Amino acid sequence: MSLKDKLMDDLKTSMKSKDKVRKDVVTMVRSAVKQKEVDERVELDDQDIIEIISKQVKQKRDAIEDFKKGERDDLVQLTEDEVKILLEYLPEQLSEEELTELVKTAIAQVGATSMKDMGKIMSSLMPEIKGRADGSLVNKIAKDYLK
Q1: What is the 3-state secondary structure (H, E, C) of the chain?
Q2: pLDDT for the residue numbered 106
Q3: What is the mean pLDDT of residues 59-66?
Q4: What tens digit of pLDDT does each residue of 75-127 get?
Q5: Residue 37 CB partners (closer than 8 Å, separation 6+)
Q6: Which domains does the chain have, with CATH numbers?
Q7: 5 partner at 20 to 30 Å CA-CA among 14, 93, 111, 113?
Q8: Cα distance between residue 139 and residue 135, in whole Å
Q9: What pLDDT shows up at residue 111?
Q10: A GO molecular-function term, please (predicted)?
Q11: How far apart are CA 3 and CA 8, in angstroms?
């Protein structure tokens, strides 16, 4: 079953069960997919949809930080629930230990020795981990090893 079909099935299920948060999240994803398809006049495959969902997860996590600063605990909880739902559609996320190993390997492969080599490391790693890890976490781990 394609990701697009799964989203449609989940939308129907969430409407029947009156799960408003899930319905809203799935509708948001389907809307973003449809928008990109219309804008680019293409049919998106699962990989493209994973990219869209990853971007939305990143936006939601940024929003959580803003909500925490504004002491909006109600919005923090809602947004965290939305992130959990979005993560269900992404491939299994890599643990920090797995990421650390991948970063070490990438540093060795590109021969990185300083922060100037960060671009090489990231361009080598990101295609491999796309949708399975947050780029900012990868960047943080790489910086720790390049100090």
Answers
A1: CCHHHHHHHHHHHHHHCCCHHHHHHHHHHHHHHHHHHHHHCCCCCHHHHHHHHHHHHHHHHHHHHHHHHCCCHHHHHHHHHHHHHHHCCCCCCCCHHHHHHHHHHHHHHHCCCCHHHHHHHHHHHHHHHCCCCCHHHHHHHHHHHHC
A2: 87
A3: 93
A4: 999 999 999 999 999 888 888 888 889 888 888 888 878 888 888 888 888 88
A5: 43, 44
A6: 3-87 (1.10.1510.10), 96-146 (1.10.10.410)
A7: 93
A8: 6
A9: 85
A10: carbon-nitrogen ligase activity, with glutamine as amido-N-donor
A11: 9
Q: Which of 64, 134, 137, 53 is nearest to 93 (CA)?
A: 134
In sequence order, which residues have a C-beta less than 8 Å from that of residue 106 and are 6 or more positions away?
A: 112, 121, 124, 125, 142
Residues shown for the chain: 147
Chain position carrying tokens 């739902």: 85
What count of other Cβ atoms lies within 10 Å of the Cβ of residue 139? 16
Q: Are 65 and 72 in contact (CB under 8 A)?
A: no
> Where do we find the tokens 């993560």?
87
CA 22, CA 14: separation in Å to the nearest integer?
A: 6
